[in-house]
Amino acid sequence: MTLQDRRRRLVVVQAGLSQPSSTRLLAQRLASGTEDALLERGTEAEVVFVDLRELAHDLANALLTGFATGGLRNALDSVAGADALIAVTPVFQASYSGLFKTFFDVLDEGSLRGTPTLLAATAGTARHSLVLEHAMRPMFAYLKATTVGTAVFAASEDWGTGGTVGSGLSDRIAVAAAELADLVAARPSKAASVNELGVELADPVPFEQLLGR
Amino acid sequence: MQFGIFTVGDVTTDPTTGTTVSEHERIKNTVELARQAEQVGLDVFATGEHHNPPFVPSSPTTTLGFIAAQTDRLLLSTSTTLITTNDPVKIAEDYATLQHLADGRVDLMMGRGNTGPVYPWFGKDIRDGIPLAIENYALLRRLWTEDVVTWQGKYRTPLQSFTATPRPLDGVPPFVWHGSIRSPEIAEQAAYYGDGFFHNNIFWPMSHTKQMVALYRRRFEHYGHGKADQAIVGLGGQVFMRANSQAAVREFRPYFDNAPVYGHGPSLEEFSRETPLTVGSPQQVVERYAAMADSVGDYQRQLFLIDHAGLPHRTVMEQVELLGTEVVPELRKIAAARKPAHVPDAPTHAARVAAAGRRQATVHGTDEATGLTAEKVSR
């Protein structure tokens, strides 16, 4: 089996607002960490970034109209077709940001079922770190994603003191990336089974069955 | 091909003047709108059904019966009749009566409604939406096609030897469309019975409409009612017109920006690109709607929404006139030119009576689609 056959699609959804953004930076570190960890397992990754800042208008429109347009449609399809997801949000008012939540609010039902998912968050202080466990993980549990045990939190101080390889943040990134890579490498790539635009809808439940219920 | 208008019946404050019509005015205006539709040569007038403010049409057959008395040719329909929360017995009776009064100028569009609390208000559970639509409609068909019905189901009191009166005009019940935006089960239901499928795409991208219509057509053929391209399809539409397209955009924008459904969201330009909303000259409307068949195939009915979001009655009357004089005649020509001979026209009572062999209302032992009989207690 060649490396090409074993390709996996890794989608990174990040809700950083500023540019540059520490949330985007953490997302990139997690993505490249996962890429490396997958390569060690003989698997090549194709990485797609979904920067929610660019989709803010489309997200508000989708809430009001009920349908997703433009870049948002592509982003939702990417997530539904992902072999692995990395989700990163800044902490706002003791939880994930509203923009981050909105994206998952408009995600089609069942999109994340069984998708290996790595959770991460950023904030000014480490006192917010349990947001990963009391806000993010329950939501992804509801969405039936398979979250990896290690979630990564980066406070402002981590970017200075803990940046060297083998300690602090880098360590946590490597551990989480390895956990995600283990899950992804162990399962087959999602076939291109996503219901993309222009593709025919599958047959519904036959009517005799609906009548007999 | 049939063309017409459909109303939601909202009472919305005109955002440009701050004025709000009374319920009385709105109801009377709606009747005048229907009369105008007939006068300018449109084929269909359809009213929604709602049971909460700010909507007035809670009693569609009352309004449609009143319109029937003042028109001669206009086909009266619904958009939609709530098959979930209405008693199918009452639907059978009301619309059979309307059929007699209107000399057959009646059909219906079944829908599940989009207001959650309507279910509990009528003693139902919204989670049963699809099963209610399926059971109630199966009963409605029997009430219309069998003179004596003995029935038992899950959602309604059983019936022993029940006859819904009056019997349908000429023994042929009104044609039924099933309206759904997102539910494949409803496209399946329409296909199973060989009924019409109406996709109200006014708030949806064509890519989605295309998928739903394609599903219905495929299943229509599967159930043996004809080829996929012979299935009976209707679409919604939304337009605002002025001779000068910039003038149309300028006048409509405040109504768009404050509209109850999509207001304060996407821009008029974004929404026009993604949905069938067309704001511009009659010629632009002709071009946009002539191309709909490229996506869904040759279809039988096109309804336009033109009277919502607080638009003044006079403006709405002008829109109907523009539709009748400048848009629909062109669309008719284009549709007739492209429609192959084997694709059926939109159903009418006369055509359905002719097809049925002009029978009198009698006991029809078996519903030809479900195989259910009068004698057999359902489930």
Protein described:
The complex is a heterodimer of chains A (213) and B (379). In chain A, strands 1, 2, 3, 4, 5, 6 and 7 form a seven-stranded mixed beta sheet that branches. Chain A has a single domain, classed as Flavodoxin domain (Rossmann fold), CATH 3.40.50.360. In chain A, 42% of the residues lie in helices and 18% in strands. Chain A is an alpha/beta fold and 213 residues long. Chain B has 379 residues and is of the alpha/beta class. Chain B has one domain: TIM Barrel (Alpha-Beta Barrel), CATH 3.20.20.30. In chain B, strands 1, 2, 3, 4, 5, 8, 9, 10, 11 and 12 form a ten-stranded parallel beta sheet that branches. A two-stranded antiparallel ribbon of chain B has the order 6-7. In chain B, helix 1 crosses helix 2. In chain B, 49% of the residues are buried. Classes of the chains: A alpha/beta (213), B alpha/beta (379). At the A-B interface, helix 2 and helix 8 of A face helix 5, helix 6, helix 7 and helix 9 of B.
Please outline what is shown here.
With 213 residues, chain A is α/β, with parallel strands linked by helices. Chain A has helices at residues 22-40, 56-65, 70-80, 98-106, 131-142, 158-161, 168-185, 207-212, and strands spanning 8-14, 45-51, 84-92, 95-96, 116-123, 146-147, 152-155.
Q: What keywords describe this structure?
A:
heterodimer; A: 213 residues; alpha/beta; Rossmann fold; seven-stranded mixed β-sheet; 8 helices; globular; B: 379 residues; TIM Barrel; ten-stranded parallel β-sheet; two-stranded antiparallel ribbon; 13 helices; 14% strand
